[in-house]
User: Fold this.
Amino acid sequence: MGLESFLGDSFVTTTMESVLDWGRKNSLWPLPFGTACCAIEYMSVVSSVFDVSRFGAEVVRFSPRQADLLIVAG
Assistant:
């Protein structure tokens, strides 16, 4: 009884480079543009309590050229 017979067709193997490329391609880089108290709310979202990095949006860019998502709060 080998691993192939146990897992069947549901097991996928790949290289680490392919996984990292997929993650880079599908992650969001938000640009926060907040005024007053709404900017403070955004800071709490990227903190460890709510942990937005679960969704791949942990890299915050402060340049519209590098951002994928514009967050306008306020």
